[in-house]
Automatic annotation (TrEMBL):
Matching InterPro entries: MazG-like_dom (IPR004518), NTP-PPase_MazG-like_C (IPR048011), NTP-PPase_MazG-like_N (IPR048015), NTP_PyrPHydrolase_MazG (IPR011551)
Pfam families in UniProt: MazG
Lineage summary: Bacteria, Pseudomonadati, Pseudomonadota, Alphaproteobacteria, Hyphomicrobiales
The protein's name: Nucleoside triphosphate pyrophosphohydrolase
Regions that span the bilayer: none
NCBIfam families tied to this protein: mazG, PRK09562.1
GO terms classed as biological process: dATP catabolic process; dGTP catabolic process; dTTP catabolic process; dUTP catabolic process; response to stress; TTP catabolic process; UTP catabolic process
Family designation: Belongs to the nucleoside triphosphate pyrophosphohydrolase family.
Keyword hit for Electron transport: no
Occurrences of domain NTP pyrophosphohydrolase MazG-like (ranges): 30-103, 175-237
The keyword ATP-binding is assigned to this record: no
Reaction(s) catalysed by this chain's protein: ATP + H2O = AMP + diphosphate + H(+)
Molecular-function annotations in GO: ATP diphosphatase activity
Length: 271
């Protein structure tokens, strides 16, 4: 197939990959749930390319993200639910509806309006319409926390939930009080471990992470950026261990935990 700048070429490729017998075995095995983690991963890759100011990578990563949209649309088309064209039509209609100050309405006029206020009002209307289609009780959407997006990364969602609750006074006034809560959650994890209750351990671990996000919020640290910084630090120090072992003619597989721990402390002391 000749490479094309037209989206139709990519849609055709995905259709071929998903064709029984002649398609790709891996692609044929996938469903919405199995592909969802890759969709999230590709969105993060886009964000990473932006942070690195690498426009070449950004182009590639946007293509990878687009593939995810095409993949989901193809699976939906196979179930006679919707196709890629329906996805495009839906977002096109939505963008026009949300920008009455840019696009003329049925009367041919462009609205002079409060942009942020109109955006929020229209999004709320759309949310109510989606709920009605799903058979969800619309009044339940009036909850104070209903505007917090459920589909965003858990760290961001936790931060947004806490910030919104804080706006009506449901919050601690001192980060030390949050530290006390963190210690309390850690104790509850230890108790759950003693009882051997794995599901309770998992639930208490979630509580601890929620409390840690709360601490980050109180000390004005972005939890996502803070964790990314720690990830980079871990990667850097672990790389030091690998290099130090290689210089001694050894490897990670051959080294003991005590040796690796000592090298970790060396790396930490050198920073």
């Amino acid at each position: 197939m000749t490479p094309s700048r037209d989206i139709a070429g990519l849609i055709e490729i995905m259709a071929q990959l998903r064709t029984p017998v002649t398609g790709c075995p891996w692609d044929l095995e996938q469903d919405f749930a199995s592909i969802a983690p890759y969709t999230i991963e590709e969105a993060y890759e886009v964000a990473d390319a932006i942070v690195r100011h690498d426009l070449g990578d950004l182009c590639d990563e946007l293509g990878d993200l687009l593939l995810q949209v095409v993949f989901h649309a193809r699976m939906a088309e196979e179930q006679n639910a919707f196709a890629f064209g329906d996805v495009v039509e839906a977002i096109t209609r939505k963008m026009i509806r949300r920008h009455p100050h840019v696009f003329p309405g049925k009367d041919g006029k462009i609205a002079a309006t409060d942009v942020k206020g109109t955006w929020g009002r229209i999004k709320a209307e759309e949310k109510a319409e989606r709920a009605a289609r799903r058979g969800v009780d619309v009044p339940s959407l009036s909850s104070f926390l209903a505007s917090v997006k459920a589909g965003q990364p858990a760290l961001s969602q936790a931060m947004e939930l806490q910030t919104k609750a804080s706006s009506v006074g449901f919050d601690w006034n001192d980060p030390r009080a949050v530290l006390a809560k963190i210690r309390e959650e850690a104790d509850e994890i230890e108790a759950a471990l003693d009882r051997g209750d794995q599901s309770e351990v998992a639930a208490e671990t979630g509580d601890l992470m929620f409390a840690l996000v709360n601490l980050a919020r109180h000390v004005k640290a972005d939890p996502e950026l803070a964790l990314r910084g720690t990830n980079a630090k871990f990667e850097r120090r672990f790389g030091y261990i690998e290099r130090a072992l290689a210089a001694k003619g050894s490897s990670l597989q051959e080294a003991s935990l005590e040796q690796m721990d000592a090298l970790w402390n060396e790396a930490k002391g050198a920073e």
